[in-house]
Amino acid sequence: MAFTNEDYLPSKEELTVPELELTSSVLRAGAHHFGKYCDKQCKEFMLCVSEDPDPRKCIPEGKEVTRCGFEFFGKVKQNCFTEFTKYFECIDHSDRQMSLKNCRPPQSLFDECMKNKLGQDRPFLGYFSSPRIHVTERPKPQLTPHKLPERIPDPPDFKNSPDPEHKFSPYGV
To answer: How much is the pTM?
Structure first.
């Protein structure tokens, strides 16, 4: 895609966002609760990305997901640090695929802490794949009008063409 001088490019300040510097085992351990905690922000971002092909318009929604992630992991650190640490260390040392099946006891301790201190239950199996209605204040996107191709010319008039039975023969017959 080519850019022209009229195209708006976000400044570096607009694009610069502090990153959640977490390892994959930490993200894997907190994924279910994080997904439920930041459900609205994640859905707003995914709705924006699916409705608008221009990624520049979804920068604020992406920043909101990051802000919610900082908020969530900050609350986990304040309230359930030891339980969460045991859980993600177990995942980190379980196997190469970081399977959760070997870490059910620390998971239940972490889930219990999340329920008691933050009031959030672990989402049930299939929660993220079940249809859920999302209400948004974002305006509906304006669809660009569909441009039709140019009209195809009419076929030639064959009434005035020579009879196909009397074709030109190179042998003179």
So the answer is: 0.76
